[in-house]
Amino acid sequence: MPLIQNGSVARGMIRKQRSFPSRTSSGPATFWSAFRRLCALLAVFSSANVFAPSIFAQSQTAPEPIAHSAANSAGYAGSEACSRCHAGIYKQFSSTAMGRSMSTATPVFLKDATPTPYVNEKLKRRFEVYSKDDKIYQSEAGIGTDGKETFRDEHAVDWIVGAGMNGFGAILQRDQYLFQAPLSFYNKPATWGPSPGYEFVDLGFNR
Protein backbone atom coordinates (compact mmCIF):
# COMPACT_ATOMS: atom_id res chain seq x y z
CA MET A 1 0.00 0.00 0.00
CA PRO A 2 1.30 3.59 -0.67
CA LEU A 3 2.55 5.77 2.16
CA ILE A 4 0.52 8.90 3.00
CA GLN A 5 1.91 12.10 4.45
CA ASN A 6 -0.45 14.19 6.59
CA GLY A 7 0.42 17.95 6.30
CA SER A 8 3.49 18.83 8.35
CA VAL A 9 3.75 15.40 9.83
CA ALA A 10 6.87 13.88 8.40
CA ARG A 11 6.24 10.29 9.20
CA GLY A 12 4.31 8.11 6.80
CA MET A 13 1.22 6.20 7.69
CA ILE A 14 -0.09 3.12 6.01
CA ARG A 15 -3.76 3.39 5.11
CA LYS A 16 -5.58 0.23 6.05
CA GLN A 17 -8.42 -0.97 3.96
CA ARG A 18 -11.61 -1.79 5.82
CA SER A 19 -13.38 -4.92 4.77
CA PHE A 20 -17.14 -5.23 4.97
CA PRO A 21 -19.30 -8.34 4.91
CA SER A 22 -20.32 -9.27 1.41
CA ARG A 23 -23.98 -9.10 0.47
CA THR A 24 -25.73 -11.27 -2.05
CA SER A 25 -28.98 -10.65 -3.88
CA SER A 26 -30.49 -13.93 -2.76
CA GLY A 27 -32.00 -14.84 0.57
CA PRO A 28 -33.50 -12.52 3.18
CA ALA A 29 -32.46 -8.87 3.32
CA THR A 30 -29.46 -8.17 5.52
CA PHE A 31 -29.76 -5.74 8.39
CA TRP A 32 -28.11 -2.94 6.42
CA SER A 33 -30.19 -3.39 3.28
CA ALA A 34 -33.33 -3.46 5.42
CA PHE A 35 -32.14 -0.36 7.24
CA ARG A 36 -31.56 1.49 3.94
CA ARG A 37 -35.04 0.58 2.75
CA LEU A 38 -36.55 1.82 5.99
CA CYS A 39 -34.71 5.12 5.58
CA ALA A 40 -35.97 5.37 2.00
CA LEU A 41 -39.56 4.90 3.20
CA LEU A 42 -39.11 7.57 5.83
CA ALA A 43 -37.78 9.92 3.16
CA VAL A 44 -40.80 9.27 0.95
CA PHE A 45 -43.46 9.67 3.62
CA SER A 46 -41.85 12.36 5.80
CA SER A 47 -40.98 16.02 5.45
CA ALA A 48 -37.34 16.73 4.67
CA ASN A 49 -36.99 19.89 6.81
CA VAL A 50 -37.65 18.46 10.24
CA PHE A 51 -34.48 18.95 12.28
CA ALA A 52 -33.43 22.00 14.31
CA PRO A 53 -30.32 22.59 16.48
CA SER A 54 -32.56 23.30 19.49
CA ILE A 55 -33.58 19.66 19.54
CA PHE A 56 -30.32 18.84 21.25
CA ALA A 57 -30.87 21.20 24.18
CA GLN A 58 -31.17 19.20 27.38
CA SER A 59 -34.04 19.86 29.78
CA GLN A 60 -33.24 20.55 33.42
CA THR A 61 -36.57 19.10 34.58
CA ALA A 62 -36.36 15.62 36.03
CA PRO A 63 -38.54 13.36 33.85
CA GLU A 64 -40.97 10.79 35.16
CA PRO A 65 -39.62 7.20 35.19
CA ILE A 66 -40.72 4.99 32.33
CA ALA A 67 -41.91 1.53 33.28
CA HIS A 68 -40.30 -1.28 31.29
CA SER A 69 -41.58 -4.82 31.22
CA ALA A 70 -39.82 -8.02 30.20
CA ALA A 71 -42.03 -8.10 27.11
CA ASN A 72 -40.53 -4.93 25.63
CA SER A 73 -36.96 -5.42 26.87
CA ALA A 74 -35.94 -6.65 23.42
CA GLY A 75 -36.75 -5.42 19.94
CA TYR A 76 -38.16 -2.00 19.09
CA ALA A 77 -38.21 0.14 22.23
CA GLY A 78 -39.73 3.32 20.82
CA SER A 79 -38.80 6.93 21.54
CA GLU A 80 -40.49 6.77 24.95
CA ALA A 81 -37.66 4.56 26.20
CA CYS A 82 -35.26 7.48 25.70
CA SER A 83 -37.44 10.05 27.48
CA ARG A 84 -36.37 8.98 30.96
CA CYS A 85 -32.88 10.41 30.53
CA HIS A 86 -33.52 12.85 27.68
CA ALA A 87 -36.89 14.43 28.41
CA GLY A 88 -36.07 17.71 26.68
CA ILE A 89 -34.89 16.09 23.47
CA TYR A 90 -37.85 13.69 23.50
CA LYS A 91 -40.40 16.49 23.92
CA GLN A 92 -38.99 18.64 21.14
CA PHE A 93 -38.27 15.77 18.77
CA SER A 94 -41.79 14.42 19.23
CA SER A 95 -43.17 17.71 17.93
CA THR A 96 -41.35 17.31 14.60
CA ALA A 97 -42.53 15.32 11.59
CA MET A 98 -39.58 12.94 11.83
CA GLY A 99 -40.31 12.40 15.50
CA ARG A 100 -43.72 11.02 14.56
CA SER A 101 -42.50 8.97 11.60
CA MET A 102 -42.54 5.53 13.22
CA SER A 103 -45.16 4.00 15.48
CA THR A 104 -46.48 0.61 16.50
CA ALA A 105 -49.21 -0.59 14.13
CA THR A 106 -52.62 -0.86 15.80
CA PRO A 107 -56.16 -0.96 14.34
CA VAL A 108 -56.67 2.63 15.58
CA PHE A 109 -54.59 3.74 12.58
CA LEU A 110 -57.26 2.41 10.19
CA LYS A 111 -59.83 4.90 11.49
CA ASP A 112 -58.17 7.62 9.41
CA ALA A 113 -56.77 5.33 6.71
CA THR A 114 -59.89 3.42 5.69
CA PRO A 115 -58.95 0.00 4.27
CA THR A 116 -59.69 -0.39 0.55
CA PRO A 117 -58.65 -3.40 -1.56
CA TYR A 118 -56.15 -2.84 -4.37
CA VAL A 119 -56.26 -5.02 -7.49
CA ASN A 120 -53.39 -5.18 -9.97
CA GLU A 121 -54.99 -6.54 -13.14
CA LYS A 122 -51.68 -6.93 -14.95
CA LEU A 123 -50.14 -9.06 -12.21
CA LYS A 124 -53.44 -10.78 -11.34
CA ARG A 125 -53.02 -9.93 -7.69
CA ARG A 126 -55.41 -8.59 -5.06
CA PHE A 127 -54.07 -6.83 -1.93
CA GLU A 128 -56.04 -6.00 1.20
CA VAL A 129 -55.57 -4.26 4.55
CA TYR A 130 -57.70 -5.20 7.55
CA SER A 131 -57.68 -5.59 11.31
CA LYS A 132 -57.82 -8.93 13.12
CA ASP A 133 -57.04 -9.96 16.69
CA ASP A 134 -56.23 -6.34 17.59
CA LYS A 135 -53.57 -6.15 14.86
CA ILE A 136 -53.28 -4.73 11.34
CA TYR A 137 -52.85 -7.30 8.59
CA GLN A 138 -52.03 -7.11 4.90
CA SER A 139 -52.73 -9.90 2.46
CA GLU A 140 -51.87 -10.82 -1.12
CA ALA A 141 -53.99 -13.19 -3.21
CA GLY A 142 -53.55 -14.56 -6.71
CA ILE A 143 -56.47 -14.24 -9.12
CA GLY A 144 -57.11 -17.14 -11.50
CA THR A 145 -58.72 -16.96 -14.95
CA ASP A 146 -62.04 -17.89 -13.33
CA GLY A 147 -61.73 -15.00 -10.86
CA LYS A 148 -61.12 -17.29 -7.90
CA GLU A 149 -58.15 -17.10 -5.53
CA THR A 150 -55.19 -19.29 -6.48
CA PHE A 151 -53.29 -18.56 -3.25
CA ARG A 152 -53.44 -16.23 -0.26
CA ASP A 153 -50.61 -14.92 1.91
CA GLU A 154 -51.18 -12.69 4.93
CA HIS A 155 -48.92 -11.12 7.55
CA ALA A 156 -49.40 -8.91 10.59
CA VAL A 157 -47.92 -5.43 10.24
CA ASP A 158 -45.63 -4.39 13.10
CA TRP A 159 -44.91 -0.71 12.42
CA ILE A 160 -46.31 2.24 10.51
CA VAL A 161 -43.67 4.56 9.02
CA GLY A 162 -44.10 8.10 7.74
CA ALA A 163 -45.13 11.40 9.30
CA GLY A 164 -48.19 11.71 7.08
CA MET A 165 -46.93 14.49 4.81
CA ASN A 166 -47.48 12.25 1.78
CA GLY A 167 -48.75 9.09 3.39
CA PHE A 168 -47.73 6.07 5.42
CA GLY A 169 -45.91 2.82 4.74
CA ALA A 170 -45.93 -0.44 6.69
CA ILE A 171 -43.12 -2.64 8.00
CA LEU A 172 -43.26 -6.21 9.28
CA GLN A 173 -40.67 -8.35 11.02
CA ARG A 174 -39.88 -12.00 10.44
CA ASP A 175 -37.19 -13.52 12.61
CA GLN A 176 -34.55 -10.78 12.82
CA TYR A 177 -35.31 -9.21 9.43
CA LEU A 178 -37.50 -6.27 8.40
CA PHE A 179 -39.71 -6.41 5.31
CA GLN A 180 -41.73 -3.81 3.49
CA ALA A 181 -45.46 -4.48 3.18
CA PRO A 182 -46.87 -4.34 -0.37
CA LEU A 183 -49.46 -1.63 0.36
CA SER A 184 -49.02 1.96 1.58
CA PHE A 185 -51.58 4.66 2.33
CA TYR A 186 -51.38 7.85 0.22
CA ASN A 187 -52.93 11.07 1.54
CA LYS A 188 -53.88 12.92 -1.65
CA PRO A 189 -55.99 10.15 -3.18
CA ALA A 190 -56.82 9.06 0.40
CA THR A 191 -56.49 5.41 -0.52
CA TRP A 192 -54.20 2.40 -0.27
CA GLY A 193 -51.93 1.64 -3.21
CA PRO A 194 -48.72 -0.21 -4.07
CA SER A 195 -45.75 0.67 -1.90
CA PRO A 196 -42.77 2.37 -3.60
CA GLY A 197 -41.11 -0.26 -5.80
CA TYR A 198 -44.20 -2.47 -6.02
CA GLU A 199 -45.94 -0.71 -8.91
CA PHE A 200 -44.86 -3.04 -11.70
CA VAL A 201 -43.55 -6.19 -10.04
CA ASP A 202 -44.90 -8.71 -7.55
CA LEU A 203 -42.53 -8.69 -4.58
CA GLY A 204 -45.01 -10.07 -2.09
CA PHE A 205 -43.73 -9.79 1.49
CA ASN A 206 -40.10 -10.49 0.55
CA ARG A 207 -38.58 -7.06 0.11
Task: Write the topology of this structure.
Layout: E1 3-4, E2 13-14, H1 31-45, H2 87-94, E3 102-104, E4 118-120, E5 125-132, E6 135-143, E7 149-157, E8 159-161, E9 167-174, E10 177-180, E11 183-186, E12 191-194
What does this structure look like?
A hairpin with a 2-residue loop joins strand 5 (125-132) and strand 6 (135-143). The protein is built from two helices and twelve strands. The chain is mainly beta and 207 residues long. Strands 3, 8, 9, 10, 11 and 12 form a six-stranded antiparallel sheet that branches. Strands 4-5-6-7 form a four-stranded antiparallel sheet, with no helix packed on it. The longest helix has 15 residues, at 31-45.
List keywords for this structure.
single chain, 4-stranded antiparallel sheet, 207 residues, 6-stranded antiparallel sheet, elongated
Number of helices: 2
Backbone structural class: mainly beta
Morphology: elongated
Mean pLDDT, to the nearest integer, reads: 74
Cα distance, first to last residue? 39 Å
Main pleated-sheet profile:
6 strands, antiparallel
Low-confidence stretches: 1-29, 47-63, 65-72
Gyration radius, rounded: 22 Å
* Secondary-structure element order, N to C: EEHHEEEEEEEEEE
- What is the number of beta strands? 12
Strand composition percent: 25-35%
Give helix % range: 10-25%
Summarize the structure.
This protein is mainly beta and 207 residues long. Helix content is 11%, strand content 29%. It contains 2 helices and 12 strands, in the order ββααββββββββββ.
